[in-house]
Design brief:
heterodimer; A: mainly alpha; Arc Repressor Mutant, subunit A; 3 strands; 59% helix; B: mainly alpha; two-stranded antiparallel sheet; 3% strand
Chain lengths: 123, 318
């Protein structure tokens, strides 16, 4: 028997790996000030509900942030907070802003492509 | 009933267990991220002590199961290019044009392929600067420890000792960044997390008795002899090979200026640079120089790899 639950999970994972990067980069590129992981998580609304629409767990955004940083699209700085633990603040670099424009185009094309393939009935 | 703090610790232990077998540096980064997030989230909720336990359970649930998060780190880590085979965007932002570096994933095989390998160049630079970093590390390590021991009987000795011990950790982190940048060995990208919930005494104890502090100190100490060896060896052989490589040029200059220059005189054998034999020999010497230089590059790449492992063993704690 096919384990559908596993298949859903796999599909979700494969699909989210690119979209989460896009979402995080876009959030940071739009933000006027640097943000730390917890704030970003809140903005993505990650982990808020357990429905099929939930894209990513809050903990899973950190490796993505680090990956974007290592690609030079984000930069980060560790700052002490008044109370509690030090936080790492992320901001989009110039290369990140540039990349985002291209990514948005790619996203739009992908969306159009999928919409076309699925036809009008699926909505 | 466990307290919020205990639940966080349990989660971190689970995460570490789920990451078993992963790169040490990845584990350290993942734990630092998780601890920062969980504690920040808890603090943002700003709750009474009693409600904290409940809140942290939700927070951990939202953060994701240890197994799942570990998977996320592993999958992103394997997709991450090593520091030296960075993506075009990273190259642009670091000021290196895409044309200067080879595409990622290309192998640099063959005797002369090494000249195109950024790892060999990174290793070479690392070996040459190690005499400077090594001297600084050694001086700081020795000064730090002896000063600390000397003033320890005074009250003022305690903060001084703490500052020195903290500096050892800090230098270990910076050296890690240097090692990753030049040698391509994956090193922690975040300093290890200091648990702010611990009391000063416990934190001090961890600093004073922690394996990481003393291994870092040992590394700083060892870097002096290692740096001297790296530097002397590289400079000697690079100078020798450069000298040999320019022999044909020197020969031609000598001939052009008509300066008699006897290179070898032994019995009947007289080798004047301007002789046809002299020219031939100078070409042989130049080839020898190229071989030595190539050998140096291979050595630099090899030493870079070994040194990366060595640095990781001492500077990244489990």
């Amino acid at each position: 028997m096919v384990d559908l639950q596993e298949t859903h999970k796999k599909f979700q994972k494969e699909l989210s790996s690119g979209t989460v990067s896009l979402a995080l980069l876009s959030i940071l590129a739009q933000s006027s000030e640097p943000l730390y992981g917890y704030q970003i998580g809140k903005l993505v609304g990650a982990g808020e509900d357990e429905g099929p629409g939930v894209m990513v767990k809050q903990g899973a955004i950190y490796p993505v942030l680090r990956s974007l940083e290592s690609q030079g699209l984000l930069s980060s700085e560790r700052e002490l907070s008044d109370s509690g633990p030090p936080r790492r603040y992320y901001r989009a670099t110039e290369a990140g802003q540039e990349a985002l424009q291209t990514w948005i185009t790619i996203w739009k094309e992908t969306k159009k492509f999928i919409d076309n393939v699925l036809g009008g009935d699926y909505q | 009933m466990k307290t919020a703090d205990e639940l966080i610790k349990t989660y971190l232990v689970d995460l570490k267990a789920a990451l078993r077998g992963a790169d040490k540096a990845t584990v350290q980064d993942a734990l630092a991220d998780a601890e920062e997030h969980l504690r920040t989230a808890l603090e943002n909720e700003s709750l009474e002590k009693e409600a904290e336990t409940e809140a942290i359970q939700t927070i951990i649930q939202e953060y994701g199961e240890a197994e799942e998060i570990a998977q996320a780190y592993l999958s992103w880590e394997s997709a991450l290019p090593p520091a030296l085979a960075a993506t075009p965007a990273a190259r642009r932002s670091s000021g290196v044009s895409a044309d200067e570096t080879s595409p990622a994933g290309r192998s640099y095989s063959g005797l002369f392929g090494v000249y195109a390998d950024p790892k060999a160049w990174g290793g070479l630079v690392y070996m040459l600067i190690s005499i400077i970093t090594g001297t600084l590390y050694f001086s700081w390590a020795v000064t730090g420890l002896s000063t600390s021991l000397g003033v320890m009987i005074l009250i003022i000795g305690i903060p001084i000792t703490i500052l020195f011990l903290l500096s050892f950790r800090g230098i270990a982190f910076l050296e890690g960044r240097l090692v990753e940048a030049l040698l391509g060995e994956r090193m922690p990208r975040r300093p290890s997390f200091t648990d702010s919930s611990l009391s000063w005494g416990e934190r001090l104890k961890a600093l004073l008795l922690g394996k990481a502090t003393w291994l870092s100190w040992l590394y700083m100490l060892l870097m002096l002899p290692i740096g001297v060896i790296y530097f002397s060896f590289m400079v000697t052989f690079l100078a020798l090979s450069l000298g040999l490589i320019v022999t044909p040029v020197a020969t031609l200059v000598m001939i052009a200026l008509d300066i008699p220059f006897t290179v070898i005189q032994s019995g009947d054998l007289v080798w004047q640079l301007s002789d046809p034999l002299g020219l031939l020999l100078s070409v042989v010497f130049a080839s020898l120089g190229v071989l030595i230089a190539t050998g140096c590059m291979h050595l630099a790449r090899f030493v870079g790899r070994i040194h990366g492992k060595f640095a990781k063993a001492l500077l990244v704690s489990d």
